[in-house]
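Quick review question:
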């Protein structure tokens, strides 16, 4: 017994089944997409979990400048409060040259506005100096350092740092008794002989520390400046001795 056939409606077509090749291609593409997603997740896990500390440390090292402000050393006085030893704040200028020779020449032209600052630099700049940090001047007065502030905003890599120069009474006998100082790694003065060494823990101050973010050209972003530790100058030491009036020194 045969079943009666059902006539198709006019305008309708039999369903089309996908070819096996098309299905295989979709499977391969889906597999590749999943594999790619897994690799991305593993890479993100490496950055955010396993190596997070190392990458954050590297980013902070490149983007944050940790600075130290040396503290003034205390004075040494005789029993009549006359100065035997005192410190004067002075400034040094360094310039880290860019690696590009054309950029270095352009910045050098800006620095030439202060001829005394670039008089010792060779012309043209040797390629061996590119990328190096050079000392342009030392023991500058406050007045000259202030004049360079505007220039430092225009020249990336130009650094103005402060330090101290120790002065002693001119009499040789007293100078040997007072002793000498040297500069520590943070720029502070450290007593190495005589009274300077004996009372170093009193005379030496506490340097201040700060952090500041840098832009891509290495310049400070003033709004990100943050104090880390307080600056505390050293204390004066008064000796139970009297210096002769004719040997009195003044700062």
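Suggested answer, residue by residue:
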């Amino acid at each position: 017994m045969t079943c009666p056939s059902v006539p198709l409606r006019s305008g309708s077509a039999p369903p089309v089944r996908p070819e096996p090749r098309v299905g295989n291609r979709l499977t391969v593409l889906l597999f590749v997409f999943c594999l790619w997603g897994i690799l991305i997740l593993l890479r993100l896990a490496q950055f955010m979990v396993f190596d997070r500390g190392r990458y954050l440390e590297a980013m902070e090292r490149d983007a944050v400048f940790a600075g130290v402000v040396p503290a003034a050393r205390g004075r040494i006085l005789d029993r009549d409060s006359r100065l035997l030893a005192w410190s004067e704040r002075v400034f040094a200028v360094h310039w880290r040259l860019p690696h590009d020779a054309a950029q270095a020449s352009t910045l050098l032209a800006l620095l030439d506005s202060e001829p005394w600052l670039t008089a010792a630099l060779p012309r043209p700049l040797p390629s061996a100096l590119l990328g190096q940090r050079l000392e342009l001047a030392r023991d500058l007065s406050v007045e000259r350092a202030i004049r360079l502030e505007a220039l430092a905003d225009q020249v990336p890599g130009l650094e103005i740092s402060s330090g101290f120069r120790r002065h002693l009474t001119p009499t040789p006998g007293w100078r040997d008794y007072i002793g000498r100082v040297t500069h520590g790694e943070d720029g502070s003065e450290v007593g190495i002989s005589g009274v300077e060494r004996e009372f170093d823990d009193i005379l030496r101050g506490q340097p201040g520390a700060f952090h500041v973010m840098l832009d891509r050209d290495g310049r400070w972003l003033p709004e990100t400046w943050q104090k880390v530790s307080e600056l505390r100058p050293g204390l004066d030491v008064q000796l139970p001795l009297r210096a002769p009036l004719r040997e009195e020194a003044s700062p």
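Why it works: Confidence is low (pLDDT under 50) at residues 247-251. Strands lie at 64-69, 76-77, 83-96, 133-140, 158-168, 181-183, 189-191, 208-213, 226-229, 237-238.
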